[in-house]
Amino acid sequence: MVKQDRRQSRSDAIGIGNLAQAKVPIHKNSLALIAAGSNLPSTSGDSARTIVDAIACLPGEMGALVSISRLFRTPAFPKGSGPDFVNAVCALRTDWQAAEILARLHVIEAEAGRERHGRWQARTLDLDLIALGDEVWPDLEGQKDWMALDPARQRVEAPDRLILPHPRLQDRAFVLIPLADICPAWRHPVTGATVPDMIAALPEADKEAIWPV
Questions:
Q1: pTM of the full structure
Q2: Element (H, E) at 129
Q3: Between 59 and which of 65, 88, 111, 124 could a Cys-Cys bridge form, CB atoms 3.0 to 4.6 Å apart?
């Protein structure tokens, strides 16, 4: 698992408050899991501040924020594509539909100065809806096809529609390790794997490269 940093987590120091690392019950109805990442400064400041400010924009009309992971520093993907990222995951109780949530996330990204020039590039803010309850989009067959996409094709092919859960969720330590902070009992609605199951299947080098900010 992730090595423990002896320093105080910066996510504690910058005031995430009582929601930090609160464990989310396994009951998933209306639970939206949102991943945040940044490796460029924004109008808010550095990447850590950008993520905290972005997550603070989520509750309200969209729903109630129930938990936020620690902030983690992770290498850019693919390797050498930019500065290290800061990543986090939060959980939100919401009655909104997936398309409504995605539209709101794009607005928050734009307000942080996000510009879209290509896949896997440096960015001020990336907000991904990684799961919404047990919803599977567009359907079970489509989800499995995107999950099984060859790594070489992943570099050049992107879905033209929302895929839920995020098709690369099970492959990404920078999502799963923050998710384990707040919702370790969550199960993938297609594979049935828990968050610890998916983390255990990752290469050790991927996990060891991730540290609390």
A1: 0.84
A2: strand 126-132
A3: 65
